[in-house]
Write a structure and sequence with these properties.
- Chain B: Belongs to the SNU66/SART1 family.
- Chain B: It comes from Powellomyces hirtus.
- Chain B: Pfam families: HIND, SART-1.
- The complex is a heterodimer of chains A (73) and B (825).
- Chain A is α+β, with helices and mostly antiparallel strands and 73 residues long.
- Chain A is built from one helix and five strands.
- In chain A, a hairpin with a 2-residue loop joins strand 3 and strand 4.
- Chain A is globular.
- Helices cover 57% and strands 3% of the residues of chain B.
- In chain B, the strands form three sheets. Chain B has a four-stranded mixed beta sheet. In chain B, strands 1-2 form a two-stranded antiparallel ribbon. In chain B, strands 7-8 form a two-stranded antiparallel ribbon.
- The chains are: A alpha+beta (73), B mainly alpha (825).
- Strand 2 of chain A pairs parallel with strand 2 of chain B.
Chain lengths: 73, 825
């Protein structure tokens, strides 16, 4: 289990517990459950990299305690 | 479900517990969270890492072991004890007694043995070498004798070699090139060294080229030094001294000595001298050749005639400096002729004198050859030559003049007027003067001493008049003949002019009256006459060209007009035809009509297009001949014609929207005004017309003078007023007849004496003239003096009569003018 912090810098900051082999989609679902936004509206970014849904956190080398940027589309 | 906890930056962080997350995950259909952070891969990686670490540790341990083993080995080797006997043990072994004396003995024996061995070897070697050397010597001496040295050169002077006693000569070191050149050379090393040393020392001393004690007598006797001999070595290379060994391998001293003595004998100077030799004043020819500068080659001189001419010119210019008249020159020439009379004897005398002179010279210098020696100081010969030349020249010049005269005659014979030339003969000029202006000057009686004909007319015949065969002029000088000739024909021609023209050959006739074309024959002949008289100028080629162009243009325009008319007519005709056609067609059926209309429309279109094309072609054709005569003229705002510069200025001003400043404009305007004034001004009168006024006044007064003031009065007295003046004599114009000599216009009755202090003027100031002008100008202002009738009637009763007769007279004048005009045209 790892914890990831997602911040949209507009007032929402979510600490999500997940497995490293979860996909980004799973992560988005979890975030959506916590914040109440639709998962398909969430865009996760780290700098200019937009994380794609079908790739696991592990493959993106997202580790415990990392901060992701959250945008809405 | 989610709980918020306050973050550092005051943001609410949303998070869920693990249980909540798991519940959510299950509801979403995902597997629950795994305990721990690692995944399978991570674990594997950890295992791998541990394994790797183990391996590394094992390796290190093994290496340690090996190291320690090696250390131990080395330690063991270091600590090994050497085997075998020690120093002490060895000595014990060799000499049990341990006696050092015996050891020394033994050592000595050993040493001696070794030495002996070496000696033997050396002796053997020496013997061998000796044998070899002797063999070599023998071989060499047997093959190489003194005679083999034949022809070898020794590089030293014989004296040097002999002075040094016995010396060894070796082959000189030389380059291949030198070897090729001079073969083997022998030299003594010591001598060469000493020579080199001497040279070096000399160079160090830096001796000058001049040596006080060095003289011809100190050097080799009989050999003279060259100029700047110190450089001989630098220029020609080192001097070769030395001698050559002869056939016996020796040097023949006797021969050497003989050579030297021979050389000296060859340069011997004879001390005997000719006591009988006399001292001569002149060089002999051989001496002359040595003494004289070699003459430069000169350009070939001019031909003989030219030469003579040049000489004659000189002569003449010389004489011209002294005399200016022909008479004196003639005298000089006469003298020359006198000299000529005795020409041949004089020549002979001269020749003989020349000969005698040469003899004299030869007497003084018996042995010399004087044939080619130039005697410039022979004045007699020179003068004789000059005389002959002059005479020749005289003859030549005389014939020249005759030739010239003949040539002139010939030219006159085939003298024809070129086309369109104005002929100016004396006759024509005279006639013209008669016709145009019968002025008093023309009436002047011809001066008696003046020849009737101008000089240039009579010039050609004068040469004929001269009798060439007759002697008197023959002996005269060449150029003063002209004057004398000039006078003669003048007299002759004047005589002939008085006498009968036809009595002689006709060559002395005055210029014939030029045949004039008759005016009555037509306009062409009139024009011809006018051109002949020079009244009408012949048009220049440019003008002719311009006229031609203008004419062409005019004809072109006329043609265009004609064509235009014809075309207009055609068009009208066509229109008419069409209208008729339309009328005819209107009678036919409607349906057919429509169909046909369309068809017609198309056809018409075609036709119209064709016609258009045709017209374009025609216009093009027409404008082929169109050459416009363009003459650009520019005018300013006053209508003045502008020249190029002004036109450009105007254009430029217009273009730039900028004109010249006030001052400049004013200046220009002033200039224009002045020009206008100048144009208006009469050429023979002042701007105020005073001259005209004066003429009028004098005419009215019948006097040649005008009274400006009488006594103190500045104005005219009443009784002298203009109106009361009545000339008692009719004013007559001087008729162009020779017998009328003068006409007096001064009134004799009203004598000048009556007004004692009259101021009489002929050209007057403006004020008085102006005062007189109103009176004078009243009736006759419009009439010019020349047009004034000279009838006695009008002049006697002056004012009233003129007033009444004026219109009638004027009329006749006009009529006259018309008549004259008619006659002119």
């Amino acid at each position: 289990m790892i914890e990831i912090i997602c911040n949209d810098r507009l007032g929402k900051k979510v600490r999500v517990k997940c497995n490293p082999d979860d996909t980004i989609k799973d992560l988005k679902l979890l975030i959506a459950a916590q914040t109440g936004t639709k998962p398909e509206k969430i865009v996760l970014k780290k700098w200019y990299n937009i994380y794609k849904d079908h790739i696991t956190l592990e493959d993106y080398e997202i580790h415990d305690g990392m901060n992701l940027e959250m945008y809405y589309q | 479900m989610a709980h918020d906890d306050q973050d550092l930056d005051g943001q609410a962080e949303v998070s869920m517990t693990i249980e909540q997350t798991n519940a959510l995950r299950i509801s979403l259909g995902m597997k629950p969270l795994t305990e721990g952070k690692s995944t399978e891969k991570q674990q594997e990686a950890e295992e791998n890492f541990a394994k790797h670490k183990d391996e590394l540790a094992k390796k290190a341990a093994r290496k340690d072991l090996i190291d320690t083993l090696a250390k131990e080995k080395a330690k063991a080797q270091r600590n090994v004890v050497l085997e075998g006997p020690t120093l002490g043990a060895a000595s014990d072994e060799e000499d049990e007694t341990g006696d050092s004396l015996a050891w020394v003995k033994r050592q000595r024996e050993k040493d001696e043995k070794r030495k002996l061995k070496v000696k033997k070897k050396a002796a053997l070697l020496a013997r061998k070498k000796e044998l070899e050397l002797t063999e070599m010597d023998q071989a060499a001496t047997s093959a190489y004798k003194a005679s083999d040295l034949k022809g070898l050169r020794v590089d030293h002077d014989l004296e040097d070699v002999m002075a040094g006693g016995e010396s060894i000569l070796t082959l000189k070191d030389s380059t291949i090139a030198e070897l090729e050149e001079e073969g083997d050379v022998l030299q003594s090393v010591q001598l060469a060294d000493s020579e080199r040393n001497r040279k070096n020392v000399d160079n160090k001393k830096k001796k000058g080229a001049y040596n006080v004690y060095d003289d011809d007598e100190f050097g080799n006797v009989g050999t003279k030094r060259n100029i700047l001999s110190q450089y001989d070595e630098e220029i020609d290379g080192p001097q070769k001294s030395g001698f050559v060994i002869n056939e016996e391998g020796a040097v023949d001293l006797e021969q050497q000595r003989k050579d030297v003595s021979e050389q000296m004998r060859a340069n011997a100077i004879a001390l005997t001298y000719d006591k009988a030799q006399e001292i001569k004043d002149y060089y002999t020819q051989e001496e002359m050749v040595a003494f004289k500068k070699p003459k430069k080659k000169r350009k070939p001189r001019r031909d003989r005639e030219g030469d003579i001419e040049g000489a004659a010119d000189e002569q003449q210019s010389g004489s011209a400096g002294r005399d200016h008249g022909s008479r004196r020159r003639r005298a000089v020439l006469d003298e020359d002729e006198d000299a000529m009379d005795v020409d041949s004897p004089a020549d002979q005398v001269n020749e003989s004198s020349v000969q005698s002179k040469t003899i004299n010279y030869s007497m003084s210098n018996r042995n010399t050859n004087t044939d080619n020696v130039n005697f410039v100081d022979d004045d007699d010969l020179q003068s004789a030559l000059a005389r002959t030349r002059r005479l020749q020249l005289q003859k030549r010049s005389k014939t020249d003049v005759e030739d010239m005269a003949k040539a002139a005659l010939q030219i006159r014979d085939d003298d024809t007027l070129p086309e369109g030339a104005v002929d100016l003969s004396a006759t024509s000029e005279f006639v013209r003067n008669l016709a145009t202006a019968p002025t008093p000057k023309a009436l002047e009686p011809p001066r008696p001493n003046r020849p009737a004909l101008p000089k240039d007319e009579s010039a050609p015949p004068k040469v004929d008049a001269m009798d060439v065969d007759e002697a008197p002029t023959e002996e005269r000088g060449g150029w003063d003949m002209d004057e004398a000739v000039d006078e003669e024909p003048h007299e002759k021609s004047t005589m002939k002019a008085e006498g009968d023209d036809k009595s002689d050959d006709g060559e002395f006739m005055p210029a014939p009256i030029e045949e004039e074309p008759l005016i009555g024959a037509g306009l062409a002949s009139t024009l011809a006459l006018l051109t002949q008289k020079g009244f009408v100028e012949k048009a220049s080629p440019e003008e002719v060209e311009r006229l031609r162009k203008q004419n062409e243009k005019r004809t072109w325009l006329a043609e265009q007009k004609k064509l235009e008319k014809i075309r207009e007519m055609q068009r009208l005709k066509e229109k008419e035809l069409k209208r008729e056609k339309n009328k005819q067609q209107q009678g036919k059926g409607q349906q057919q009509q429509q169909h046909r209309d369309e068809h017609d429309w198309y056809r018409e279109e075609q036709e119209a297009r064709y016609a258009e094309r045709e017209r374009a072609r025609e216009t093009e054709e027409r404008f082929k001949k169109y050459i416009p005569d363009v003459n650009l003229e520019y005018h300013d705002e006053y209508g003045r014609k502008l020249n190029q510069k002004e036109a450009f200025r105007q254009l430029s001003h217009k273009f730039h929207g900028k004109t010249s400043g006030k001052m400049k404009t004013e200046r220009r305007l002033r200039k224009i005004e002045d020009e206008l004034k100048m144009e208006k001004m009469s050429s023979n009168d002042t701007p105020l017309g005073t001259a005209g006024a004066l003429v009028e006044r004098t005419r009215a007064a019948g006097a040649a003078h005008v009274v400006l003031s009488v006594g103190n009065r500045s104005a005219l007295p009443a009784d002298v007023s203009f109106a009361s003046i009545k000339p008692n004599k009719p004013i007559t114009k001087p008729t162009p007849r020779p017998h009328v000599t003068t006409t007096t216009v001064i009134d004799t009755d009203r004598n000048v004496n009556t007004f004692n202090r009259e101021k009489v003027t002929f050209g007057l100031g403006g004020s008085v003239a102006a005062a007189a002008a109103p009176i004078a100008n009243k009736p006759v202002a419009s009439q010019s003096p020349s047009s004034r009738p000279s009838s006695p009637q009008s002049s006697s009763a002056f004012q009233p009569v003129t007033a009444t007769t004026f219109p009638a007279k004027r009329k006749t004048d006009i009529e006259d003018g018309r008549e004259t005009k008619k006659s002119r045209t």
